[in-house]
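This section describes the prediction task in plain terms. A model, or a person checking by hand, is given the sequence of a single protein chain and must write out its three-dimensional structure as a string of tokens. No templates, partner chains or ligands are provided. The sample shown here is typical of the held-out split.
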Amino acid sequence: MSEIVCGIVDNIRHNRTRGAALKTPVVAHPPRRSSPAAPGRETPAVQDRSTDAYRRLRNEIVSGGFHPNERLVEADLAIRLDAGRSAIRAALVRLDQEGLVTREPNRGARVRLVSDREALEIEEVRVILEQLIVRHAAQRVSATDLRDLRRSIVRMRERLAQGDPMGYSGLNAEFHQRIWAIADHGTAGRLLANLKSQSIRFQYRTILRPGRTASSLREHEAIVEALAGRDPDASEAAMRQHLRHVVETLKWAIDAQRHQPIWLPGGASSIASDPG
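The expected answer:
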């Protein structure tokens, strides 16, 4: 009897469980959507736009598109660089961290004005790095590299003949950058690029010193000839001689500035360009 009762109870439990399973509705889950970007995190597209604005603004400052101490108005920069205000703001923050720009609360941003002392310190560091770079270049220079350097010399000579010191100054910068590329010394190259970007490039017009352009050309020709001999010692000596004159001329420009300042935007005054 007890076995019969137990069997009936088991049967009832089985039917209840089966019925519950049959009554359970099937829920259709919607397709899973990707999670939105976390607040404050930029999408790759936004990051690309910010980086592009930063690079373009940095190049404008380094190339002299803006004068030392010139105001950098976000709205104007957005139009000039065809970028959003947020991208311009992010670029200014990065440039402030690099020392190219000065940002002040409630006053906006300006191109940073380098002090006389800092300008000299920058050139002293440059002397050491450029000598290291040219030694490496002497061991790596190819026939194609030499041909390109000699073409640069020809173009520089043309600017000298045309009486165009500022055009010469731009070619001078390209000449040195070409040597950096030949040397392929990543660390020294990055350090030099940063020095040049925040240096006296368009703040001290040392190339305007009477006779400096012709002397500079001869110094660059000597560097090329030393590189053509694949001689690290001779290349280093030629670069050292060149940069010694650069530092001397910078000191001359600083002294000239104190006696006859040239107006710069924002009420600052100085003498401005590339000292090399």
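For orientation: Strands lie at 71-72, 101-104, 108-111, 262-263, 269-270.
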